[in-house]
Write a structure and sequence with these properties.
The complex is a heterodimer. By secondary structure, chain A is mainly alpha-helical. Chain A has helices at 2-21, 52-62, 75-78, 131-135, 144-152, 155-165, 172-183, 192-197, 205-217, 246-250, 282-291, 311-321, 327-331; strands at residues 232-233, 259-260. Chain A has two domains: 35-188, Cytochrome Bc1 Complex, Chain D, domain 2, CATH 1.10.760; 192-324, Cytochrome Bc1 Complex, Chain D, domain 2 (Orthogonal Bundle). Classes of the chains: A mainly alpha, B alpha+beta.
């Protein structure tokens, strides 16, 4: 009887060890940490549980130009850690062959909290986000089928997908899930503003005044703590539209000229501004809201008279906006390009 | 026993485990085995009380003078508009197949997603395995992919994003994709990508096919057949290629085409 008992115990142990080999039963100790002053994230890694091997694979893919037609453009080409994961301060980004896109590459931090993606909200899930830049002829100009051929041809990627997902063949589902593991971990929550919210630092008198002005004049759309309410609005840039924005997605004329309210986190570093990158300074943005609003049938009702601000008030709001710069994010070695 | 020390980890575990009852260990073993199994593909339950059902979809073109099998790279004339069609691509999704038993209850086909591609010929066979034996009176299916799978991230199999049946810029599956050439089009070509899984202009619809006074008999280890016929020409009954040759948005026209496409399907036969 005792011998049998021992055998059963041994069998249990063997199975435990064989499970561990797949790297799938033991989640890593780290993962997405929800900052105390943040709401619950939208993306909960359903069917894509967080593991270090999956995150590292996603990071490799994010920095690898293999995702583009001629192996020249990676995700990081237009979403650079040094620029808070926005592009290098150009209005439009260069794709394969130097073609320019038609909208400004946004900063992609805090995507786990996003209910929709792209300036027009056309994409509804982080896992199906990457297919757009990969296949867009103005961006990476590649097919998903060919990306899979290229990845499956590399022993290193086959090994990494096997380790991360126990996958013998690399599929598009695992590719997109791995990219999501990395992208969802790009969290900006370590700015001076965040430390202030956590009670770890205080704002200067000017920053405090700027925060109060911001809350009175800007926060109805750029809602704390993510600094966007994720709605689509026409902020009075043009009287007529060359880009229909949200209207292109919904086919509803009432949505023409509307774009997603962008987060203002790291806004100091993510210039130029607006969906077409038309403003290069925060002062220009302030001037637009105070005196530059163009009327049109879909112009946001809250901007009927613009946003009245004195020159001094604009300066204080800008002072506050600079407290949203997250230097820790840009220095985070976990998110940096891996050295192989 | 409390103060007993062993040198090896295995010895320690052995000693600790030996203190518990064999039953508990069997339970533990089962637990580990179960946790391993969860990662594998679900196994089909095969029992003698189930058979298979083949759903045959026969695609046809009805011209004024004849009914022809619909094949790619062949010319067809529309009976209403007189437009000429030559298809280079014809693909569509059906999902969520169900069979209604005589007693009114439904058998639901699990993980039921099929991409029909006429590259494979004018007839598509969908095999439903492990259908409980019994008599069935109706087949229900959904044209397109249900809204849940359009909002749940990256999928696999028929729903993989590699089939060219997914919009990158406006998330959602292309439910029906018809492309080809026609002298009636101003561009000499046409492309209809019918999509949209929500709202008034959705291209997704669930349709029930009653077997009239017939009964589908599913018997053990046997394959029965339900045949549907699709008159593909119906899709363009209300649209001339000279007016529209390229629709790749969700609007009232794409909705009309989707409804007319679904309306071209009808129940044809059973083979027991």
């Amino acid at each position: 009887m005792r011998f049998h008992t021992f055998l059963i115990a041994l069998a249990s142990l063997t199975m435990l060890v064989s499970c561990r080999k797949t790297g799938k039963t033991e989640p890593v100790k780290w993962g997405l940490k929800v900052p105390a002053h943040f709401p619950e994230p939208v993306y909960k890694f359903e069917n894509n549980q967080q593991f270090q091997a999956r995150f590292e694979l996603g990071r490799d893919l994010f920095y690898d130009p293999i995702l583009s037609l001629d192996n020249t453009i990676s995700c990081a080409s237009c979403h650079s850690q040094t620029h808070a994961f926005a592009d290098h301060n150009g209005a439009f980004s260069s794709g394969v062959g130097g073609t320019l896109g038609t909208r400004n590459s946004p900063s992609i931090s805090n995507l786990a909290w996003y209910p929709s993606f792209m300036w027009d909200g056309g994409v509804n899930h982080i896992e199906v986000f990457s297919i757009a830049p990969i296949t867009n002829p103005l961006e990476m100009k590649e097919t998903i089928a060919n990306v899979l051929v290229k990845l499956n041809a590399q022993e290193t990627y086959r090994k990494k997908f096997r380790k991360a997902y126990n996958a013998t063949t690399i599929t598009d589902q695992k590719l997109f899930q791995a990219l999501s593991q990395y992208m969802a971990m790009i969290v900006s929550a370590n700015s001076k503003y965040d430390k202030f919210r956590e009670g770890k630092t205080s704002l200067s008198a000017g920053e405090q005044e700027g925060l109060a002005l911001f809350q009175a004049k800007c926060a109805s759309c750029h809602t704390e703590p993510l600094f966007t309410d994720f709605t689509f609005r026409n902020n009075g840039l043009d009287a007529t539209f060359t880009d229909l924005g949200r209207g292109h997605i919904t086919q509803n004329p009432n949505d023409n000229g509307k774009f997603k309210v962008p987060s203002l986190r790291n806004v100091e570093l993510t210039y130029p501004y607006m969906h077409d990158g038309r403003f290069f300074t925060l002062s220009q943005v302030m001037d637009h809201y105070s005196s530059g609003i163009q009327d049109s049938p879909t112009r946001d009702a809250s901007l009927a008279d613009g946003i009245p601000m004195t020159a001094s008030e604009k300066q204080k709001i800008i002072l506050f906006l600079k407290t949203l710069t997250d230097y820790a994010l840009m220095a985070d070695p976990l998110l940096a390009e891996p050295v192989h | 026993m409390e103060n007993q020390r062993t040198i090896s980890i295995f010895g320690e575990i052995k000693n600790r485990l030996m203190r518990t009852t064999p039953f508990l260990m069997l339970f533990t073993t089962a637990l580990f085995a179960f946790s391993c199994k969860k990662e594998k593909e679900p196994e089909h339950v095969h029992s003698s009380s189930s058979g298979s059902v083949k759903v045959e979809l026969a695609h046809e073109w009805q011209s004024i003078s004849a009914i022809q099998d619909l094949l790619l790279d062949s010319n067809y004339v529309h009976p209403v508009t007189d437009d000429t069609f030559n298809f280079t691509t014809f693909k569509y999704y059906v999902s969520n197949l169900k069979l209604k038993k005589e007693d009114g209850t439904w058998w639901i086909h699990p993980e039921s997603y099929f991409l029909i591609d006429l590259t494979d010929g004018s007839i598509a066979d969908l095999t439903l395995a492990d259908v409980p034996t019994g008599n069935y009176t109706d087949l229900e299916l959904t044209f397109g992919v249900d809204s849940t799978r359009n909002v749940s991230g990256a999928q696999t199999g028929a729903l993989s994003l590699t089939h060219g049946m997914f919009w990158t810029w406006n998330t959602g599956y292309i439910m029906t994709k018809a492309e080809g050439i026609s002298p009636n089009s101003t561009t000499n070509s046409f492309a209809f990508h019918l999509a949209g899984f929500t709202g008034a202009n959705s291209a997704v619809a669930t349709v029930n096919y009653h077997f009239n006074d017939l009964t589908l008999q599913v018997t053990a280890d046997h394959t029965s057949e339900v045949g549907l016929v699709a008159k593909i020409n119906k899709m363009w009954d209300q649209l001339q290629l000279s007016q529209h040759n390229n629709i790749q948005v969700v609007n009232t026209t794409s909705h009309m085409l989707a409804l007319d496409f679904h309306g071209g399907f009808s129940f044809d036969h059973l083979h027991n």
